[in-house]
Every structure is written in C-alpha cells, then in structure tokens.
Specification:
Keywords: Hydrolase. It is built from ten helices and eleven strands. The protein is an alpha/beta fold.
C-alpha cells in the first residue's frame, strides 16, 4: 500500500457558493457527506438571490457586491478555506481568490465557470456556438423580466437542463426553489493576476453529461486557464444533488492529492465517511 500524500496546507473549512438562480439550499444534499468526512462547511446566499430581501433592498448587484459578501463569509473562518463554486459561482470565486489569496487554500470549480481575466461566459458561448451544438445551455429557455434586467428559469427547463439525472422528488423541489436572478449578477468579468489568483491551487470537477455548461465548454475553460487538477464525474450539471457521495469522495481525494487537509489533528483529510 502506498503512503498517503503529505499534507502541506491545513484548511479551516469549506465555503460553498451556489450558482445563478439558486441559494445556499443547493448544497443541502452534499453537506452531510462533507460533514461525515470531517469538513466544516458554510453554504452562503449571494446577495440578490431572494434569501434576504431586507439585506439586499436597493443594493446594486455587481461582481464587487459578491466579493464583499464572500469576503465577510470567508473571514468567519479561522484560517484559509477551500472555496467550492458551482456553475456561475466560479466567476466570483475566482475574483475572491484574487482579492484574498492568503485566505483561499484551494479553488474547486464544480461544472464551474473558470474563465480567464476579461472574458465573460457569454463571450465563450458565442465563440463556441459554431462547433458546439446547444452551447447556449439554459439561455434559450430563460424568461426575461423587469425590462430585461432579471431572468427566471421555468421549472420544466430546469428539470430538463439542470436536473435531468437527479432523484425525481429532489429535482422537483430544487426546480421549485429557483429564484429570479438579476442579470447584473450574471454578466460578470474578472480582473485576475498570476501573482494572486494564479498562485492558488485549483481543482476542476467536470460533469460529463452537463446540458447547461456543456463538456466542450468546460474543457475550453480548462485550456484557457490551465493548471487545475481535473477530475470527472459522470452526471449532469448538479453533481452535488445527482451524486453527492461520489462528489464528496472525489473532492476529498483530489484535495489529498494536492496536499490539502482539514485543520486540526490528523494527517490527511478523510476521503470516506467514518464507519
């Protein structure tokens, strides 16, 4: 039996960031898996997602709005954390790492938007449309509201594009929880540097059956922002709901491979729940 990889960085916990039209609830099926493996996790609600109307009243939703909220969340941990970003959350997660590189032990993109500085996801889709069928993903199904400033996802489209391989009852519940998204919170472009963002270890979990961020687009982003440890999971756009235990093991094993462990006692992060 080979020796376990040495831990070079101890993480105080995980910060979980949901994608567009979602909330902290998007991680509910995954949290018990990570807790069983010893991780302390905080799943946040991004500003403007409907979870805290009083907090968000009159607030302009920008990339900086997200980074400010995530900075507050990350500072609640006593030490660097692993930042896990699903889908569109990849953009604010990257900018968070640029802003607070000393507080981010690792970035994990789950079917996420790992884009280079200055590029928006719509630009990537437009550039790929000729050779990637259905590259637009959910976009053709969106309902535009409030004079084009907000979008919403119809439940039927969510079930077909996001949740097609998730457990039936859980998929229905997730589709019903989706909330309108301000477009200013989706059309985001980062400003990144090699000295700050570029020094953070990254893991990319590609979803092989994704109908939203299609696999060819995931792989184009990996090529545009090279250096991530890439792992694959055979499911659609929401691995944390479709295959939570498999995703948890995959993530923990990948962290162990790059030498990131749980803060506190012990030699390595667990890859399996205690028996």
């Amino acid at each position: 039996m080979s020796a376990a990889p040495a831990v070079t960085t101890r993480a105080a916990g995980m910060l979980l960031i949901h994608g567009a039209w979602q909330g902290s609830w998007a991680w509910d099926a995954w949290l018990p898996e990570m807790t069983a493996r010893g991780w302390t996790c905080n799943a946040v609600d991004l500003p403007g997602n409907g979870a805290n109307p009083e907090r968000d009243a009159g607030v302009e939703i920008t990339l900086q709005t997200y980074v400010d909220a995530l900075s507050e969340a990350i500072n609640a941990f006593d030490g660097p954390v692993v930042v896990v970003a699903h889908s569109g959350a990849g953009v604010p997660a990257s900018q968070l790492a640029e802003t607070l590189p000393e507080r981010v032990a690792c970035l994990i993109y789950v079917a996420g938007m790992m884009l280079p500085a200055g590029m928006g996801y719509a630009e990537l889709v437009d550039a790929s449309a000729a050779d990637v069928p259905n590259a637009a993903g959910i976009a053709p199904y969106l309902q535009w509201r409030d004079n084009g400033t907000t979008t919403a996802v119809p439940a039927a489209a969510a079930l077909d594009i996001f949740l097609h391989d998730c457990p039936h009852e859980a998929a229905g519940q997730a589709a019903a929880k989706l909330t309108p998204q301000r477009e200013s919170g989706r059309a985001l472009v980062t400003t990144l540097s090699a000295a700050r963002f570029g020094r953070i270890p990254r893991i990319y979990v590609e979803a092989l059956r994704d109908r939203s961020v299609l696999l060819p687009l995931q792989r184009k982003m990996q090529a545009l922002v090279p250096g991530a440890l890439v792992r694959s999971i055979d499911c659609g756009h929401v691995p944390q709901l479709a295959r939570p235990a498999e995703l948890a093991t995959l993530v923990c094993d990948a962290l162990a491979e790059i030498g990131i462990g749980i803060g506190g006692d012990g030699d390595t992060p667990a890859s399996r729940p205690p028996r």
